[in-house]
Structure formats: structure tokens, C-alpha cells
Amino acid sequence: MLRLSALSKNFDGLRVLDNLDLTIPSRGVFGLIGPNGAGKTTVFNLITGLLAPSSGSIEFSGERLNGLPPFMITRRGIARTFQNIRLFKEMTAEENVLVAMGEHPQYGVLKALVPGAYRRAEDSERMAVRALLSRVGLSAKAHQRAGFLSYGEQRRLELARALATRPKLLLLDEPAAGMNAAEKQELGEEIEKLAASGLSILLIEHDMRFVMKICAEIAVLSFGRWIAQGGPVEISAHPKVIEAYLGNNAREN
Amino acid sequence: MEWLDSFWSTYSTLVLSTGTNVLLALSIYVTLACGLLSVANAGFMAIGAYSAVLLTLHTVTPLPLALMVGAIAAAMVALLIGVPTLRLSGVYLAMATLAFGEVVRILILNAEDVTGGALGLNGIPQLVGVFEVITSVAVALYVFLRLAHSRIGRTITAISQDEIATELMGLNVRAYKLVCFVIGAALAGLAGALNAHFTFFISPNEYGFERAVEILAMGVIGGVSSPWGAVLGGTLITALPELLRGMGRYRPLINGVILIMIILYSPKGLWDGLQTLLRRVRP
Predict the structure, then answer these.
(1) How close is the nearest chain A Cα to the Cα of B190, in Å?
(2) Residue B29 burial (10 A CB sphere; 0-12, 13-18, 19+)
(3) Structure confidence by residue, pLDDT tens digits, B138-189
(4) Cα separation of B94 and B86, whole Å?
(5) Helix/strand/coil percentages in chain A, nearest 5
(6) How far is A56 from chain B, CA to nearest CA, in Å?
(7) Cα separation of A106 and A172, whole Å?
(8) Predicted pLDDT of residue A248
(9) What is the ipTM of this complex?
């Protein structure tokens, strides 16, 4: 479904991603791991169009994404969450998700000008938003400002907001960071449910137990290159992976 | 009735100016609301004023058409300069739009054959009265209030808080910003066209740096959380110097102090400050 071919990215001569090939299936949870600074978030930024690749191509459902502005890529069915949460902090949880529904407007400018006319359209949007909020366990916080939510709640709100764009592929950048064990457990179940419903999920995560539990396949990135790819069992025993995490880079962990 | 007549003969210009200033405040409100710090609106006001006045002065164009031409002329120029300049943000955009305003002023100053240069244009027919001004303000305010509470207003608020996150929700942030910029310009153009038709005379210096800052002040003092903020800001900036008339030569000083106090104690603008105050009074 998503295919990276010979993808490279340079920052002022520094090669952060080097000739990456990767194919992500249209179903299931795919893990993207690697030590800090390996280039994982850069991969996400290239896929979502926030950065332009230095060379190589990105294809999604057979269509080339390079050169498309980010909003067009989202409309093609790719949504993401951010490592450093980027919610609309002054808006309520409900409004945050409503903004993301704007891509599928239920009413236009003219209807918005007539009193009451867009209420019904808005109501059906709000119903969908409520369903998404309850899915991530935030029903009770719908009218609270996003900035006042706890860290874990903010992560879950970001997930709901990403889902509101109706993605086919979901990119999650450290979704479990800052969550307690119970929250992680719930999040893992939710991600598995999403994958079961036909969504493809690409996940960056540092919590190895979490990754090993929910990912069907894992690719390991180190200094901008793949060092291993395979199932959880294979990856956790892979000598290069162990070296990258513990060997020469012990300070990273 | 006699009381009303004497009030009107003294204050009619003030009432009309309040109206056009509220329009100008709304014009900067649209851009500020989506996080654009543009100070081009004095320039757009000039474009609107001159294009409408040239029509009513030299042809038999009916007023509504002339007003429309003023607004559209400003909007077209905004579209043209908006595409390249809106790539900028923050103070860089402010610099670029400030320069644009100066370019407009200097062009008008030098195109003497058409614009009368520094002497300006005299004897403009006084076609605009309370009806035209109030109608324009009412329509603009209505449209803005409706849109502010719809998904369009929500998207604009989202853009002002995090452009990248908004873009990644599948929303065309550049298009939204351009439309806001163009609508702001059209409103400023309309305000200029209206204003010129009750002041009898226009000259390029009315649309310079000071005017640009005044318009910005109206937007900031009023606040951008609601279009009502623009109404408050526009009215206050127009009326305050009149209310302080008794202060003699201390007037500008006290005027300035009051504005600074407002920003200090209600940094999100008067409208936001009033809302907070009301909530505190009756929780």
C-alpha cells in the first residue's frame, strides 16, 4: 500500500536517511523502531509531505506522493499524530476533532450564513465526533480545553483527531509516550482494533514491550539505514538490533 | 428634534467615521484571526477610495457600483500580492505589507494626472450617509458572526493556533489564508470608498503608515476572539479622542495611556476582557 523506494534525505549535506526501501501492507500494524536520532520522525515527515525527499519516491496505493502539499496527502488517506503533541490547545476536545472533520464538510459557506440551516449538518458532525471521542475514552472531556487535558489524554485526543480525517494509513509517532501501564494496555487494544477494522498502521515507539506485542512486522532504523526487518521474535534476537540499542550506543538508552 | 439636528450637524462625521472604522477593524480582524500580521489595509483602503472616487468624480456611475468597484479593485490587488507574500509569516509579513502600503501611497503621490498627487482629489460628491454606512457594517458583521461559529471560523482559529497541524487535517491552509487576506482587502477597500464619499476630499497622506498602525490598533485593542471585538476596537479608537476633547494638549498622551492600559490588563483585547469580567460578576 505504501511504498518507499530509494528514499534519501539530506540536511545541509548531512545524510539523515540513506536509500531506504520499504513496503507497508494495507492491513495490520507495522513497527518502525531505532535508537534516538535514527531518522524515524524524518520518515514520517517525508511521507506526510512536511519535508521534501532529496531523492527517491513515495507511493501510496500506486500513486506518487512526492511534491504533493501535505493537505492533499491527508486527503489521499494518510493521517498522523505527533511526537511532540500538536493539538489546538485553546480549543475544546470536541472542537479539535471537529476541525479534522472539515475535510468532509457537511455544509458550505452559503448554508453557514442562514440561521439554523447548518445546525442539522453540524449536529450530525458532532455525533460522529462524539463517537470518536468515546472510542478513545474522552466522552466526559468533550468540552474541556485540549491544553488542560493530561498528557495521556492529549495523546488519545490526537488519535481521535487523526481518525476524523478517515485515513487508510495511520502514522503514530510514539503514541504510548507518557502513558501509564493501564493506559498503554488500552491504547494497544485500541490500535489492534483499528488494524482489525482494515486500517494500516505505521508506528514509531520506544517501548519495546509495547512494540513487540502489537506489531506484526518491524523495521529497524539506525543512522538512516535499515539494519533489520522481520517479525517481533526475529527482531528481538537480531544481533545488529541488540548492538544498535545496547552495544556501541549504550548511552542512548 | 432640534437637539438631534444640532447633534447631527456636529457629530455626523464622527458617526460615519465610526462606521467606516468598524469596517476597517473587521478588515484587519479577518487576517489577525488566522494569525496573519498584515498591515496592508491602509493601502487597500487607498485603492478602494481612489478607484471609487475616480468613477463618481468623472463618470455618472451610481454609488453602489462605485463602492463595489472600490472593494473589488482592492481585492484584486490583494490576490496578486497575496500569493507571493503570504509565504511569509510574523514580522516578515508585517514588513512586506508595510512596504506594500508605502508603494501604494507613493504611486498615488506620483500619478498626479489621475490622482492629483499630493494635493489629492477635491469636490467628491457627498453620496454616503448613515444608511450606506450602517448597512455595510451590518452586512459585514452578520456574515462574520455567522461564519465565526461555523466550521469555517473553527478552521481559521485552528490555523492561528497551529498551521502545520491544521494542514495535516487535510485543510488547505494557504487557500484559507489567501481568502482571508483578500476578504480583508475588499472590506478595507469598501471602507475607503465609503469614507471618501462623506469627507469631500482625499489625499495620499491619509493612507500612510499612521493609518496602517491605527487600523492594526483597532484590531488588537478590540481582540480577535470575536467579530464584536472589531466593533469595540473600531468604535473606541474613533470615539476616544473625542471623549478626551476636554483634556486640551494632554489629549494624545491620555489617549495613549488608556490604550496601553487596555493592552496591559486585557492582552487578548477588550471583548475578551469584558467576557472574563462578566463571567466573574455572575458565575
Answers:
(1) 21
(2) buried
(3) 999 999 999 998 889 999 999 999 999 999 999 999 999 999 999 999 999 9
(4) 10
(5) 40, 25, 35
(6) 22
(7) 27
(8) 57
(9) 0.90
Distance CA(A43)–CA(A25), nearest Å, equals 17
**Arithmetic mean of pLDDT over chain A:** 90
- Please state the pTM of the whole predicted model: 0.91
The minimum CA-CA distance between A165 and chain B, rounded to whole Å, is 6
Contacts of B143 in chain A (CB under 8 A): 113
Do the Cβ atoms of B168 and A70 come closer than 8 Å? yes
B236's grid cell: 473606541
Q: Which residues of B touch A105 (CB under 8 A)?
A: 151
A70 and B172 within 8 Å at the Cβ level: the answer is no
Q: What is the rounded distance in angstroms from the CA atom of residue B272 to the CA atom of residue B226?
A: 8
* Cα–Cα distances in angstroms (integers) from residue B264 to residues A90, A167, B216, B228, B253, in the given order: 21, 45, 17, 20, 16
Place of cell 464538510: A105
Chain B: residue whose CA lies nearest to A44:
B168
pLDDT along chain A (253 residues), means of 10: 94 91 92 91 95 95 94 95 94 95 75 78 86 93 95 93 95 91 91 93 92 93 92 89 71 46
Task: Burial-class residue B271 by CB neighbours within 10 Å (0-12, 13-18, 19+).
Answer: buried
Residue by residue, DSSP assigns A125-163 as HHHHHHHHHHHTT-GGGTTSBGGGS-HHHHHHHHHHHHH
Q: Give me the residue label for grid cell 452578520.
A: B142
Who among B147, B161, B167 is closest to A88 (CB)?
B161
